Amino acid sequence: MIITSKPGLGNKVHISIDGKYTLTLYDDYWYRLKIKEGQEISEEELASLKEEAGFRLAYEKGIQYLTNRSHSRKELFEKLKLKYGAPAAERAIEKLDYLGYINDEAFATEYAGYLFEVKKYDVKRISYELKLKGIDSEIASNALKTLDNEPILRIIEMLRTKYYNKTNSEKELKKLVNRFVRMGYSYSDIRSAFDECELEMPGY
Known about the structure:
Layout: E1 2-7, E2 12-17, E3 20-26, H1 27-33, E4 39-40, H2 43-68, H3 73-84, H4 86-98, H5 104-117, H6 123-132, H7 137-144, H8 151-160, H9 170-182, H10 187-196
């Protein structure tokens, strides 16, 4: 198999095998190999090039994802695996982790805060969401401890502000109860909040 190359966009190099485009490498890696134009390579050497190409693309995409927002280790791995396969994704994750770009503790605290303040979720739902992101139970527990959780007061606040105009019928109240349950609040806390707001808890 004869290997040739030509410059691509930015710092990329397009690699062709026997005149057919095969893969793209980054120029720092390609020039470090010191492969000559028209050199013959083996199947093993080509496989090594493909492995490096997959890893580097996964790594660069990982940086892009992390630039947009923080990710948990599991979340980022799953995204990269879909595009580049498990081996390349794992190598990329290991390098990103080594460089300090991945921090499940910081992510868990940030994400829990977002779900608590913006989504208004209760800690039960937040705990579930953190688990979905692959966050260790101890890390999740520590993140939840940073939240000033007063579930009944939070429900009361939502009833008096965000949902103040959705309490005029039993049908609307049922929808509210179901919404609060999906947000992680217990029936007992919902009932207490309804009582405080002098609202009739709908029957089921």
